[in-house]
Amino acid sequence: LFVFDRTDEVDFWMKNTPMALDLVFVGEDGRIKAIKRGEPESEAIISPGQPVRFVLELKAGTAARDGIKEGDFLRHPAIGAGSN
User: Fold this and answer.
1) Domain, as residue range, for 12
2) CATH at residue 64
3) Which band of pLDDT confidence, cut at 50, 70 and 90, is reported for residue 83?
4) Is residue 49 within 8 Å of 35, Cβ to Cβ?
């Protein structure tokens, strides 16, 4: 889980990452804003298109397999604890 100091626009890429990932972009309140797939070793920019506070990386396909979708809430001790 990436925890940013403040809610902001973020960009990710997959350079030097050997496996495909689901990138789950999460707002300050824990609501999932977007889920994007990252391809191995790609330098393509991956962005949710809106400000977020957290990004969770999962093995590719995990979000779909577990029914995780935009609008769901992610619960984690870091969410809420450092959010102002």
Assistant:
1) 2-75
2) 2.60.120.1140
3) very low
4) no
Which helix (H) or strand (E) covers residue 80, if one does? helix 78-81
**Residue 16 to residue 81: CA distance in whole angstroms:** 31
Tokens 């797939």, located at residue: 37
Q: Are 82 and 3 in contact (CB under 8 A)?
A: yes
* Beta strands 21-26; 32-38: pairing state: antiparallel
63: in domain:
yes
| Chain segment 3-54, per-residue pLDDT in tens | 999 999 999 999 999 999 999 999 999 999 999 999 999 999 999 999 999 9
Whether residue 56 lies inside any domain: the answer is: yes
CA distance 59 to 84: 30
**Residue 27 belongs to some domain of the structure:** yes
